[in-house]
Amino acid sequence: MIGIVGGGLAGLAAAYRLQQAGREAHVFEAADGVGGLAATYETSGDRIEAFYHHLSKSEETIVELAAELGVDDRLEWRYGSDAYYVDGVVHPMNKPWEILAYPHLSLYDKFRLGMLVLDIDVRGGVPSFDSYERLEDFEDVPVKEFILEHTSRGCFEHFFLPLLRAKFGDRWEEVSAAWLLGRIKFRGERDILKGEVLGYFDGGFGTLLDALIEAVGRENITTGARVTDLDVADDVSSMTVETADGVTTHTVDDAVVAAMPNVLEDLTGYECDIDFQGTVCSVISVDEPLTDTYWLNIAEEVPFGALIEHTNFVPPERYGGEHLLYAVSYIQSPEEELWQMDDAGVEEAWLDGIESLFPDFDRESVNWIRTARNPRTAPIYERGYLDMVVPYDLGDAVPGVYYAGMASRAQYPERSLDGAIEAGYAAADAILE
Fold first, then answer.
1. Among residues 23, 422, 405, which one has the least CA distance to residue 252?
2. Is the separation of the CB atoms in 294 and 41 below 8 Å?
3. With CB atoms counted within 10 Å of each terminal CB, which end of the chain scores lower, N or C?
4. What span, in angstroms and rounded, lies between the C-alpha atoms of 264 and 399?
5. Lowest mean pLDDT among 186-195, 301-310, 373-382, 415-424
């Protein structure tokens, strides 16, 4: 048997891949339910993810898996709308004329920004269409230096800087240009008149998760099961698991750690130098929509970096008529005030922030708020990141142990559900080879 530590999408994908090749695999998940960052809440209709998710057209592995599991007919491609809140005004940023009307960038700024988004390097006055192909070439380039050189100071100060601060807090200056370029490439297909094409499942990502659980087999998944030890003296041979019923030891041929690298280090001693940031994320149910935008970036001093109005992307009828809104903030240190707050304090901070942006917002329109937090939801993609990724096969360092967590190569230069599945597949393939 191959023991898998972690029942998120990466762990389930690894088990599925191994089983498809005729190998026995069992998933052990410490939490009471599987799904990891793709876990869901109940609503008056469809389930909603605790942490917001959608697919880009560039994410192909997860689409292929949906087809194998027979749920690709539930995958819908919709148009996501974007806007930027600056100085009390929501500025739509979808159609060309909306971008041209944005008052905080000059025409020259918009031209340079547009060229970057189109993957065209216009430095020196001669367009180049292949300058940004190799992200590795920009691994050691500071993101600020890159933006100033490849766009303009106006783009940096009035467009990118608020986004970088919202994403990475006071660590933003450590981020590499490779992350920014990867983020731009990751976004995928855009209709010039309707906006970016984004994917979502009818029924939410729980549709895919349920199908994957069924494919792996519920009998091959144990929840509430914390792996506390791996016997890796010469080659992995056993796995110790703690549940409410006691401690058991399982003989394993190999082990896949599909969890954060701190779990890998605790179990094997293998160290990873990648720093992670946490997230505090709430789903807010309200009677009426706040805006007509799906994704609202915010350049103001409020406790959240973005407001993501899910039911401006997926119709509220799917949720019993509820209008659902995410408020989210990344956390670089557990000492931050927001992380120290209890859920009631976080929710009060969110509502105060929304009121400061939208004075007509009525708190009485709030039906419920559910708050999730996780200390490690995304890497800080600092310079030299690729030198720190954990290999899928730990080889001579820890024979018989394979890694499929968020510190793997598949989650570079941006973490995603697609990357989780790719990581699970890659770890499984390393075993099968």
1. 23
2. no
3. C
4. 13
5. 186-195
**What is the DSSP code (8-state) at residue 34?**
S
CB 312 within 8 A of CB 333: no
Could you give phi then psi for residue 40, rounded to 5 degrees? -130, 165
Are 292 and 98 in contact by the 8 Å Cβ rule? The answer is no
**CA–CA distance, 281 with 270 (Å, rounded to integer):** 30
Q: 257 and 401 in contact (C-beta within 8 Å)?
A: yes
Closest alpha carbon to 255 in 216, 224, 229:
229
Gap between the Cα atoms of 329 and 334, Å rounded: 13
Give phi and psi for 226, each to the nearest 5. -95, 120
- Per-residue confidence (pLDDT) for residue 237, from 0 to 100: 87
What single-letter DSSP state applies at residue 100?
Answer: H
C-alpha 176/C-alpha 38 separation (Å) is 27
CA–CA gap between residue 102 and residue 377 (Å, rounded): 32
CB 282 within 8 Å of CB 371:
yes
242 in helix, strand or coil?
Answer: strand
Question: H-helix or E-strand containing 301?
Answer: none
- 12 and 34 Cβ atoms separated by less than 8 Å: yes
Tokens 């009060």 sit on residue: 348
Rg (CA), the chain: 22
